[in-house]
C-alpha cells in the first residue's frame, strides 16, 4: 500500500505539472501511470484498464473544480454553452462508462492508444477547426455532448481535447472555449465516476477501498499531489515558448501511447 501511495503521488505530481504547463487535463498521464502502479494492490489484467479509467475520472472531479473556478473568476466561462452541452455530456458519459463495464480491457486500451496518437498528430500539425456556425441549441449541443461524453469515458479524460475544438468551431474565443470546457469537465467526470462505480459494483477481486472500478486511495494521492504542482506548471509555462511546449507535450504523448502499444502487441 505504501508503494502504491508513493507511486500515485508521483503520478499526480506529473499530471498536475503537465496540466499547468500545457493547459490540459491529466487523464492522458494518469491512466498510463495507474496501469503501472495498480498491480501493486492486486488489480488483475481483466480489470486494470477499467479501474484506471474510473479512478482517473474521479480525480478529475476535484482538479477540474479548481480549474473551473479559476476560469470563472476571469470571466472565461460561457454558461449558456455549458447549459446546452450539459445534458448530452452527462448522459453520454454515464452511458459510456456503463457500457465500458461490458467491454474488455483490451478494447479500451486500443481506444486509448488510438486517441492519444490522434491527439499528438493534431498538436504537432497545429490542426484547428475552421470557425463555423454560431452555437447550436440544446438539440445540437446535446448530440455533440453525448459523443464527447461517451468517448471521454472510454479514455478517462475530462473531455477538453474534444470540447475545445467543438467550441472553437462554434466561434467562441480560445480562452472562453478552454474555460467553458473546464466547467463542462466537472459534471462529465462526475457522471463518469458514477458510471464506473456502478458498472464495477459487483465485480469481485477489486482492492479494498474501491467503489466499483474507482479506487479511492489512488484518487486521494493523485489529487493531493496534483493541486500544488499545477500552479508551478502554469508558472513554468509563462517562461517557456508556447510552440515548443506544445511540441514537447505531443512527443510525450507519443511516447506514452507507444509504451502502451508495445504492451498490446
From TrEMBL:
Location of the protein in the cell: Cell membrane; Membrane
TM segment ranges: 51-69, 107-125, 145-168, 180-201, 213-233, 245-262
User: Can you quote a single GO CC term?
Assistant: plasma membrane
Topology in the lipid bilayer is annotated as: Multi-pass membrane protein
Coiled-coil intervals: none
Q: Which InterPro entries match?
A: TM_pro_TauE-like
Keywords, sorted A to Z: Cell membrane, Membrane, Transmembrane, Transmembrane helix
Q: Which domain of life is it from?
A: Bacteria
Primary location recorded for the protein, binned into one broad class: membrane
Q: Which family does it belong to?
A: Belongs to the 4-toluene sulfonate uptake permease (TSUP) (TC 2.A.102) family.
Protein name, entry field: Probable membrane transporter protein
Q: State the species of origin.
A: Chitinilyticum piscinae
**What is the organism lineage in this UniProt record?**
Bacteria, Pseudomonadati, Pseudomonadota, Betaproteobacteria, Neisseriales
Amino acid at each position: 500500500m505504501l508503494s502504491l501511495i508513493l507511486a500515485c503521488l508521483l503520478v499526480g505530481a506529473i499530471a498536475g505539472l503537465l496540466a499547468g504547463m500545457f493547459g490540459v487535463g491529466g487523464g492522458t498521464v494518469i491512466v498510463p501511470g495507474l496501469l503501472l502502479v495498480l498491480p501493486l494492490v492486486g488489480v488483475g489484467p481483466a480489470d486494470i484498464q477499467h479501474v484506471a479509467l474510473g479512478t482517473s475520472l474521479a480525480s478529475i472531479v476535484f482538479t477540474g473544480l479548481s480549474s473551473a473556478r479559476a476560469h470563472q473568476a476571469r470571466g472565461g466561462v460561457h454558461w449558456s454553452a455549458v447549459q446546452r452541452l450539459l445534458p448530452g455530456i452527462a448522459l453520454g458519459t454515464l452511458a459510456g462508462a456503463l457500457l465500458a463495464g461490458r467491454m474488455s480491457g483490451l478494447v479500451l486500451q486500443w481506444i486509448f492508444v488510438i486517441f492519444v496518437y490522434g491527439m499528438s498528430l493534431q498538436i504537432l500539425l497545429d490542426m484547428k477547426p475552421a470557425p463555423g456556425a454560431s452555437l447550436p441549441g440544446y438539440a445540437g449541443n446535446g448530440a455533440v455532448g453525448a459523443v464527447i461524453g461517451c468517448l471521454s469515458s472510454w479514455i478517462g479524460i475530462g473531455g477538453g481535447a474534444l470540447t475545445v475544438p467543438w467550441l472553437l468551431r462554434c466561434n467562441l474565443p480560445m480562452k472562453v472555449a478552454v474555460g467553458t470546457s473546464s466547467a463542462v469537465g466537472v459534471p462529465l467526470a462526475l457522471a463518469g465516476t458514477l458510471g464506473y462505480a456502478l458498472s464495477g459494483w459487483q465485480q469481485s477481486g477489486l482492492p479494498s477501498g474501491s467503489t466499483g472500478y474507482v479506487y479511492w486511495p489512488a484518487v486521494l494521492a493523485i489529487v493531493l499531489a496534483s493541486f500544488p504542482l499545477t500552479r508551478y506548471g502554469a508558472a513554468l509555462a509563462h517562461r517557456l515558448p508556447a510552440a515548443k511546449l506544445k511540441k514537447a507535450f505531443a512527443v510525450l504523448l507519443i511516447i506514452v501511447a507507444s509504451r502502451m502499444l508495445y504492451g498490446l502487441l
